[in-house]
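Appendix C: a fully annotated inverse folding record. The material below is reproduced so that readers can follow the format used throughout the book. The structure is listed first as tokens, followed by the designed sequence.
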């Protein structure tokens, strides 16, 4: 399975428009090679480079989406999401744009193909979603972009 974006390549900078310094909308994403047995997709976006004085664990969850149709090949930038969204670290539901306070950070986009449609519970945390997905992951893919404020 592959995950890509028309806005940036793996390891390259995420354009400003998708950050807190821009419009702050979600970037376009494309999924390919989804297993035919998949019943749903889940997406987690996180930053592992958060300073310890901001988050002790060094991790900021920017977006959680699950129960995406496995037939979805693309999410347009700023797309309205027809799936369930979870809580980001800011305590909000939906996409939280990159806004690193100190230096260049890495942003990992993970997509999971699942053999089930998960029970719908808006506002789940990353930990709750990972627990619900346990034993149901058919395939995964990742995309990583970087962002540094001007």
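Designed amino acids, in order:
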């Amino acid at each position: 399975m592959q995950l890509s974006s028309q806005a940036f390549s793996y390891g390259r900078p995420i354009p400003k428009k998708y950050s807190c310094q821009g419009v702050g909308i979600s970037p376009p994403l494309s999924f390919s090679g989804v297993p035919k047995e998949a019943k749903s997709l889940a997406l987690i976006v996180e930053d592992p480079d958060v300073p310890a004085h901001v988050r002790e664990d060094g991790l900021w969850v920017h977006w959680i989406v699950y129960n995406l149709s496995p037939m979805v090949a693309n999410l347009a930038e700023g797309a309205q999401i027809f799936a369930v969204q979870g809580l980001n670290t800011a305590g909000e539901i939906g996409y939280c744009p990159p806004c690193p306070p100190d230096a260049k950070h890495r942003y990992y986009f993970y997509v999971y193909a699942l053999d089930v449609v998960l029970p719908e519970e808006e506002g789940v945390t990353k930990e709750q979603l990972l627990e619900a997905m346990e034993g149901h992951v058919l395939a995964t893919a990742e995309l990583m972009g970087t962002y540094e404020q001007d």
